[in-house]
Amino acid sequence: MANTPKEFFLKYGIPIVAIVVIAIQLLFVNTQSLTKWKGGGYGMYTGIHYYYDQIYIPGLSVDSMIVDNNEMKTVLGRLKLMPNDKNLKMAAKLVLETSEKDSIHIQVWKPEVNPENSNYTRVLINEIHLKKSEL
Amino acid sequence: MKYWSDIEDSLKDNIERAIQLLLLVLGIYILIVAEKYRVAKLPVIFIGLLIWFFFRNKTKHPIVWIGFLILLIIDLCRAYFLVANHHFMLIFMVIPVIFYAYHKRSDILLKNIQMLLVVVLIASAAQKIMSSQFMSGDFYYYMLNRGSVFGVFFNFFPESLELAKSNKESVLAMSELDPNGLESIVLKDVFSNLSFISVIFAWVTVAVEFIVALALLWKPRSIWAHLLFAAMIIGILCTRLETGFMALLAICGIFLSNNIKLRLLYVIIVMACITLVVTKLGYH
Predict the structure, then answer these.
(1) Any B CB within 8 A of A86 CB
(2) Do A10 and B178 count as a contact with CB atoms less than 8 A apart?
(3) Of A133, B32, B85, B146, which is most buried by a Cβ count within 10 Å?
(4) Inter-chain residue contact A56 with B180, CB threshold 8 Å
């Protein structure tokens, strides 16, 4: 055991910070829909990678939208990382601003597999409808 | 055997060797991620190089380590939720090494490394227990059917490889369709009894992580604890080439192990991981 507070800090300070980072990650996972793969909580390989999640915008191609548009790439990337209402709204605003549409519908889908019948499907995890008039 | 005695001599000072390897892994990692947020990193690298060049033998401060730590922190501040988990672990290993340069107390450094390793392993196991997709075996079932784990071994089973390729293509084709159509596809199992194997594999993974964590917490110098730990690292590398993270775990093993042969095993793992990282066959 550590004899002095200084020694205690030197021995256990960093592991305690690591625990705090894990606690913050768990908080974000449970309140902000952060993927378990990120945030320093060592939750990689606990579920299908968020890279395989799909952002679906009816009438628009997400792949073409992010080509040569770093802001769109960042905002939609953040949406996949944390598919919460706030990030959905940010993405919807940006898509409305850059497209000629009057309203937008954005969905985030997650892959799901059922080993019992070998079925692979996608489930809706969050979505938003936003009109230009609501901006 | 002169070669063996040279190796033994070299591995006697495990702390020095582990720090040397950590610096090598850190340098390679920093180099790979250097172009991200380069404007912020530019002055740190330039001033750091100048200080290192002129004052490296005239100061007691570990300039290279401090410079690398600043670069790691820049990445962390700019992309806290994007950096890999081992980026955090790297920071948590570099800070005690910097402190060690001042206090020179190996017991403090080793306690830091031991506790950090235990925290990482327990967190990893606990996160898996909290994930229903993992514990039900669904995750491994999906990854195995896509050929995304045990990739190297699939080459020895051509039929399974073909099935994995076909599953991958079906999933890709499905992603082109409107998900509101609620279609589903049927994956072809790459091996028989795959759903059962996936559940067993999931539980074994969690059990091994917990056992290794507890063994290292209870007896961090025990040969058995390190044999289990090294087997776990090799097992993870066989599953997927997470070479960056595994190199860090093996360096922790060098720090904590008292046995020369185990230290050699860890050094071989670290060197293999470094080779795979620089040739971009493994993940950094």
Answers:
(1) no
(2) no
(3) B85
(4) yes
Write the pLDDT tens digit of every residue in A57-104: 998 889 888 888 899 999 999 999 999 999 999 999 999 988 888 899
ipTM (interface pTM): 0.93
Q: Hey, what long-range contacts does B30-35 have (CB within 8 A, 24 or more apart)?
A: B30/B68, B30/B71, B30/B72, B32/B277, B32/B284, B33/B75, B33/B284, B34/B71
Q: Name every chain A residue with its beta carbon within 8 A of the beta carbon of B81.
A: 28, 34, 38-39, 81-82
Interface-testing mutation among A12, A45, A64, with chain B (most B C-beta atoms within 10 A): A45
B189 in Cβ contact with B163 (< 8 Å): yes
Summarised one tens digit per residue, pLDDT across range B175-212 is 888 999 878 999 999 999 999 999 999 999 999 999 99
Contact B166, A87 (CB under 8 A): no
- State the Cα angle at B234 between B230 and B237, rounded to 5°: 140
Q: Which is nearest to B234 in space by CA: B273, B277, B275, B178?
A: B273
Indicate the residue of A14, A17, A118 with minimum beta-carbon distance to B186. Answer: A118
Q: How many helices (H) and strands (E) does chain A have?
A: 4, 3
- Structural tokens at position B59: 């100061």
Q: Listing from the earlier edge strand, what are the strands of the sheet with A103-114?
A: A54-56, A103-114, A119-131, B184-186
CB neighbourhood size of B173 (10 A): 10
How many alpha carbons fall within 13 Å on the CB side of residue A93?
Answer: 11
Contacts of B96 by beta carbon, 8 Å cutoff, 6+ apart:
A10, A14, B108, B109, B112, B113, B116
Distance CA B103, CA B36 (A): 34
CB contact under 8 A, B139 and A45: yes
**How many interchain CB pairs under 8 A, A with B?**
141
Mutate to test the interface with A, among B78, B95, B119, B167 (most CBs of A within 10 A): B119
Domain residue extents for chain A: 1-46, 50-134
Residue A31 tokens read as: 């309140």
CB-CB: which of A7, A37, A115 is closest to B138? A115
Residue-wise DSSP of B106-172: HHHHHHHHHHHHHHHHHHHHHHHHH-HHHHTSHHHHHHHHHT-SSHHHHTT-HHHHHHHHHHHHHHH
3-class SS of residue B33: helix
